[in-house]
Amino acid sequence: MAGFAFPDDHGGWRGFDVDICRAVAAAALGDAKAVRFTPVSAEERFNLLRNGKVDVLARNTSWTMGRDAGEGVDFAAITYFDGQGFLAPKALALTSADELNGAKICVQQGTASEVNLADYFRARGLQYQPVLVKDEADARARYQNDGCDVFTADVSALASSRSVMNNPNAHVILPTIISKEPLGPVVRQDDPVWTDIVRWTVNSLILAEELGVTSKSAPQLAETSTDPRIRRLLGKGEDFGGMLGLKPDFGYQAIVQVGAYGEIFERNVGAQSALKLERGHNAQWNAAQPGLIYAPPIR
Q1: Which of 79, 131, 136, 143 has its CA 20 to 30 A from that of 248?
Q2: How far apart are CA 87 and CA 143, in angstroms?
């Protein structure tokens, strides 16, 4: 999916979620390149994770009680606060999802989006015809070929899809948001140490942005900063890495090799990217326009 996880022209993986995985590799193994990416479908993702075929399930998986308590997995952190919306042709001049009574709606089968869609229309006494698709590419193709009237998914996924359509400006994301979709890395429930490693890697990236630490400034700050919060983050002084079985500078390695949360966001999906998504809910809690991004302290 453009902006979040996609192979480039040289076969290398790029994107927001790819960078989160690379940060975990940098923290755990000291090398951001020490990671292998395996595309998985919505139907097989949890089985592959439980069976050890993948160590981290990244992106496009919402944290819900049913999954957390019923799938034998743990959600290590939230990296992106999203919500489900609708992509529609601008020519229809729609202003709300409530105007979609009787519409044909493309939705990915076996996902939370399918359930949310049914709940939203049932609660309002509206009718719709679901067009079940296997993945984002299938939904995008059917939508562009008039196989459905609108396409529903997480807003970030819709923005990604629109960015690679034949005429992106001919489509709009409706203002109606029908769900909360907290997204982030998922791990097996039987390995609490690994869960903590993934969780505190993500927390380190978030704290770095909060404290003004970047991939470029981290080396100097590691040597000169007198702020105890920054020193702990960068592995100076107290050894918090040892609590995870990692080196003291695990956070430093993730930040220097991949970047702070803000750097990862901006280059992949924000102002420096083709998607140009606003920070919105994904702004820091203490930003001028506060968001929901917040990490527990390292202390």
Answers
A1: 79
A2: 9
pLDDT at residue 258 greater than cutoff 90 = yes
Whole-prediction pTM:
0.91
Measured CA angle at 66 (ends 63, 70), to 5 deg: 115
Secondary structure element (H or E) that encloses residue 55, with its range:
none
Q: What is the largest CA-CA distance in the chain?
A: 63
DSSP-assigned states of every residue in 124-189: TT--EEEEEESSHHHHHHHHHTTS-SEEEEEHHHHHHHHHTSS-GGGEEE-S-----EEE--EEET
Pair of tokens at residue 55 = 């160590």
Banded model confidence at residue 227, pLDDT cuts 50, 70, 90: very high
Length of the chain: 299
Angle at which helices 250-257 and 192-210 cross, to 10°? 60
CB 103 within 8 A of CB 151: no
Long-range contacts, 210-216 (Cβ 8 Å, 24+):
210/284, 210/285, 210/286, 210/295, 213/255, 213/260, 214/255, 214/259, 214/260, 214/262, 214/263, 215/255, 215/256, 215/257, 215/258, 215/259, 215/260, 215/263
Quick one: which H or E segment has residue 193? Answer: helix 192-210
- Of 67, 21, 20, 65, nearest to 42 by C-alpha is 67
Q: Which residues of 195-211 are buried (b: 16+ CB within 10 A; e: fewer)?
A: bbbbbbbbbbbbbbbbe
Question: Can you tell me whether residue 292 is helix, strand or coil?
Answer: coil
**Confidence band (pLDDT; 50, 70, 90) for 188?**
very high
Q: Which of 76, 24, 27 is nearest to 246 (CA)?
A: 27
Whole-angstrom distance, CA of residue 169 vs CA of residue 162: 8
d(CA 250, CA 202): 11
